[in-house]
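ok new one. same drill as before - structure tokens go in, u give me an amino acid for every spot. 788 of them this time. try not to just spam alanines like last time pls lmao
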């Protein structure tokens, strides 16, 4: 081990950035504090001591952040697992409502909310990120957040950038690891929660509510330990889509049904338009079951198994703002607003008011065998399976508008059963001279297999109940990624540490095909590619209270199955694939300085990313077809430069007050691109979509005493664009991406050791902001929790 004085110095310097706000009370040797469960750092490198370990490569001297279960409970209104990331520097999850299962995509420094395949999310080393696709379009591919509930979380750790050879190119933005609870004694927990969101926008003025209940039980008896968690979410989300018509498309005429209720608004191009109604107002019921078993075969060898079940049933409901002379809602046909007639292709149909009914059952299995001797050798074998056991979506046809669509009629049935992924990993750690030696070598083999099976059928009778008829579209394809990797952590001088590594990958795509009818099937040839990604990082304890770090890494993000083959067609959207897409290749680097301020730590990080052939899916509205058209393309080169400042402090100014905050500046511009949106060259020099120039977070938490605590948080994001040509000048509308500033409040009261009551307000200032869809307005939460 290191000399005690140097280890104490490094601990005082680095602990706060392993877990924000988790500071030691003094600078004693951590060996004298065996109860410490949080990660600690040595010379700017995280070393996990005790508790359930993170899966992150903790020897990498790069930017890492984390948060503990206690901090989440005290300071965050967490209704879903992704809420734990709310105040992390440079991170944003596009969560639209409680239980958002198909659009809650993670954004990082240089990866926007349309690029879900550029970040990797794990829970206890099991992949939750859905790398079957990227972002949203004809299909949606957010991480499977629903397979972790907030009550399970023990800790969340984040590594920024592709600086570890242990992860594929999908780690270009960030790697998130949820560490969930595994008991050391008998534990029981129960929680109920309620959320109320008064929502007012256009012609909608309604309160939407969500209810949640969760229970957990676990124990450790001898060599066996187990944990069971069940959770139900019953949620009403606000409307997310809005049919519109440009004022300029109306014709001065008396034709059509005269209506009232059309809400004047503006398009993303600031053109005058009418908003005619709302859609995709989800009523969602989700059930979650997680079972974890562990057996200590020997004191240094543990076998673990995880079973997760996630069932989702939701209905997406439309509502027309338009009323005829009798006061009845108008959903179809030609209509007339203030003397402007909308006929022909501008008339109303089921495409404007889509009614959906979804039913899904997803199953995850995880199995691992891991040694933890901390001697010369350690190893791990791990495998996981994610299975779309059932995944159905029913939707009315364009010819079947409401109100008839609410009870049946023609439509479509989309089925995704058979879709899923499998992972296998074999890892080893070699310490030639033990833990105190200058080298720690990590190495491994990984294989990931992805299988997409998604078919849509026309339903001529009752789309709500009938089986599929003729084929409307079919998508299938497989990809496989095999990887060999190794990295050496080398302590080559007393205050220096370096990590050198590399990742060799072979990628294959096969069995690809699409069809829009039984007679139009296309099959695509197999593809395979080989790539190598070097990694390097170094840290230097320049001063007793200052550590300097540098990291550099290459990431190759392979095209996903959906991007290659996922052409789909539904009533209101069309997704176009490209089987010849090139992988995107990124070089990312960062320089950081971290300074110990006694009871706080400050960090300043300069980061750069240069990406070639960036993979982008862009959704545009076709005013002629009256539906969304999504296309995938390679963007020649995107260059990002930025600066991130972060601060974390405990007992700042007064005992009990914890403060944390961050400010990020990013200059992210398209430098090269042969593709275009409207005319050649119209994307050159434009800002990368969904990357704000400025963003910031702040969180203050105060513990009055053992019973009372409160927190106040704030989040800011500057101007963004959603389109590659930055033509969306107006972000405060449907399809737009707006700036925002929101404040969040939480109050926690513990009348006894076992009972906890919490009240919170998210979006306290009721900012009305957008990311294609409207975000939630001011929301009130209440929680009641019992712990054995």
């Amino acid at each position: 081990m290191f000399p005690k004085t140097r280890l104490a110095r490094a601990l005082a310097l680095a602990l706060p950035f392993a877990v924000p706000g988790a500071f030691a009370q003094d600078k004693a040797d951590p060996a004298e504090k065996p109860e410490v469960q949080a990660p600690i750092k040595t010379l700017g490198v995280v070393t996990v001591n005790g508790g359930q370990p993170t899966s992150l490569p903790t020897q990498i001297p790069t930017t890492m952040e984390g948060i503990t279960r206690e901090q989440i409970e005290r300071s965050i209104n967490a209704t879903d697992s992704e809420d734990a990331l709310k105040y992390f520097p440079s991170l944003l999850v596009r969560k639209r409502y409680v239980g958002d299962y198909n659009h809650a995509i993670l954004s990082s420094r240089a990866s926007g909310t349309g690029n879900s395949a550029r970040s990797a999310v794990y829970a206890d080393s099991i992949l939750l990120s859905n790398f079957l696709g990227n972002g949203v379009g004809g299909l949606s591919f957010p991480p499977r957040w629903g397979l972790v509930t907030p009550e399970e979380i023990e800790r969340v750790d984040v590594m920024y950038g592709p600086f570890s050879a242990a992860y594929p190119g999908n780690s270009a933005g960030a790697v998130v690891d949820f560490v969930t609870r595994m008991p050391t004694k008998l534990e029981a927990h129960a929680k109920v929660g309620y959320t109320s969101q008064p929502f007012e926008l256009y012609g909608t003025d309604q309160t939407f509510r969500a209810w949640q209940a969760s229970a957990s039980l676990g124990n450790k008896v001898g060599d066996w330990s187990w944990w069971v968690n069940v959770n139900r979410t019953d949620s009403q989300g606000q409307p997310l889509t809005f049919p519109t018509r440009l004022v300029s498309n109306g014709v001065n005429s008396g034709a059509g049904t005269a209506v009232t209720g059309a809400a004047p608004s503006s398009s993303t191009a600031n053109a005058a338009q009418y908003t005619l109604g709302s859609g995709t107002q989800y009523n969602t019921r989700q059930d979650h079951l997680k079972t974890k078993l562990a057996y200590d075969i020997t004191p240094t060898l543990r076998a673990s198994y995880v079973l997760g079940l996630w069932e989702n049933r939701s209905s997406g409901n439309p509502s027309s703002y338009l009323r005829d002379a009798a006061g009845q809602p108008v959903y179809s046909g030609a209509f007339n607003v203030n003397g402007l007639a909308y006929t022909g292709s501008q008339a109303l149909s089921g495409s404007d008011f889509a009614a959906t009914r979804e039913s899904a059952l997803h199953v995850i299995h995880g199995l691992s065998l891991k040694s933890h001797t901390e001697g010369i050798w350690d190893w791990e074998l791990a495998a996981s399976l994610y299975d779309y056991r059932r995944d159905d979506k029913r939707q009315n046809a364009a010819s079947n508008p409401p109100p008839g669509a609410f009870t049946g009629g023609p439509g479509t049935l989309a089925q995704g059963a058979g879709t899923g992924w499998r992972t296998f990993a074999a890892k080893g750690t070699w310490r030639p001279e033990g833990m105190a030696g200058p080298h720690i070598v990590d190495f491994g083999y990984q294989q990931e297999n992805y299988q997409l099976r998604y078919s849509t059928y026309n339903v001529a009778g009752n789309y709500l109940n009938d089986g599929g008829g003729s084929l409307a579209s079919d998508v299938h394809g497989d990809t496989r990624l095999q990887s060999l990797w190794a990295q050496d952590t080398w302590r080559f001088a007393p205050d220096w540490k370096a990590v050198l590594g590399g990742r060799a990958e072979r990628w294959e795509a096969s069995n690809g095909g699409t069809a829009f009818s039984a007679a139009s099937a296309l099959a695509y040839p197999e593809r395979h590619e080989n790539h190598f990604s070097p990694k390097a990082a170094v840290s230097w304890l320049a001063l007793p209270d200052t550590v300097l770090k540098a990291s550099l890494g290459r990431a190759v993000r392979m095209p996903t199955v959906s991007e290659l083959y996922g052409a789909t067609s539904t009533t209101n959207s069309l997704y176009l694939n490209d089987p010849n897409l090139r992988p995107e290749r990124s070089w990312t680097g960062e320089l950081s300085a971290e300074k110990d301020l006694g009871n706080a730590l400050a960090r300043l990080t300069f980061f750069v990313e240069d990406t070639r052939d960036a993979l982008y899916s862009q959704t545009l509205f076709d005013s002629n077809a009256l539906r969304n058209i999504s296309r995938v393309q390679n963007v020649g080169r995107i260059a990002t430069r930025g600066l991130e400042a972060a601060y974390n402090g405990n007992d700042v100014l007064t005992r009990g007050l914890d403060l944390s905050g961050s400010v990020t500046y990013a200059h992210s511009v398209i430098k090269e691109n042969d593709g275009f949106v409207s005319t050649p060259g119209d994307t050159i020099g434009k800002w990368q979509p969904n990357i704000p120039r400025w963003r910031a977070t702040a969180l203050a938490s105060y513990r009055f005493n053992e019973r009372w605590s409160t927190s106040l948080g704030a989040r800011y994001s500057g101007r963004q664009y959603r389109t590659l040509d930055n033509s969306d000048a107006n972000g405060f509308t449907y399809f737009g991406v707006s700036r925002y500033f929101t404040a969040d409040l939480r109050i926690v009261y513990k009348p006894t050791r076992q009972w906890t009551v919490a009240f919170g307000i998210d979006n306290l200032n009721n900012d009305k902001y957008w990311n294609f869809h409207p975000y939630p307005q001011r929301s009130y939460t209440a929680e009641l929790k019992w712990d054995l």
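The longest strand covers residues 471-493. and btw The first helix runs from residue 4 to 18.
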